[in-house]
Design brief:
mainly alpha, 77% helix, 0% strand
């Protein structure tokens, strides 16, 4: 029995090393600008069930920077990556279902992906998304306290949408004392760091149309 466990563990280590090498090689080719072969190796890495490899190839097809945009392929790779445990992929899929831009809007699927990303993966982006849905009561019962805690975690870990969430609650005096001046500062930082929602809230407070 001990011998069998040792053999299985040894084989697993070899397989992990080989799969990791495929992803590492893909990343090296990408950095050198050999995008065509990098894409091939990313796809190979994904076929070997490397969740990070699936994420990278999904991002390539989603962003369309080195390959033609193909949202159907991107969704497929993101989903496989999420299933394999890549928290960032789960967060991205959650955002796609939440916004309903590339597929039908589905709050149930959005909150499932956000939850997996945040709860299992401690992903700041996933927690920010889950916080927003808790704040608005979308796909789940409204829970202002939970939303605040999720926004706080996301903001602490560098997510601008999480900071936007804290700014909203600061502006509205939810959980914390209302402080429009502080809210404005938070919106400004979140906007600068890349939150479109924060920029919209900032412009609203500034009276910009």
């Amino acid at each position: 029995m001990k011998t069998s466990i040792f053999v299985i563990g040894f084989l697993f280590s070899i397989m992990s090393a080989l799969y990791g090498d495929t992803l590492t090689s893909a990343q090296a080719l990408f950095e050198k600008g050999d995008y065509k072969n990098a894409v091939k190796l990313y796809e190979k890495s994904c076929s070997e069930n490397n969740a990070d490899g699936c994420f990278e190839i999904g991002r390539i097809y989603f962003d369309g920077q080195i390959a033609k945009i193909d949202y159907k392929k991107a969704m497929k790779y993101y989903e496989k990556s999420c299933e394999g445990g890549n928290a960032e992929s789960c967060a991205r899929i959650g955002g796609i279902y939440y916004k309903g831009e590339l597929t039908n809007q589905d709050f149930s699927k959005a909150i499932a992906r956000y939850s997996k990303s945040c709860v299992q993966g401690n992903n700041a982006s996933g927690c920010a998304g889950l916080g927003l849905m808790s704040y608005k009561g979308q796909g789940t019962a409204q829970d202002i306290r939970a939303a605040f805690d999720l926004f706080k975690f996301a903001a602490k870990n560098g997510d601008p949408d999480g900071l936007n969430g804290l700014a909203m609650m600061t502006e509205n005096g939810q959980i914390v004392k209302a402080d429009p001046t502080k809210a404005m500062r938070l919106y400004e930082k979140a906007c600068k760091d890349g939150s479109d929602a924060a920029c919209q809230n900032l412009y609203r407070l500034q009276g910009v149309k």
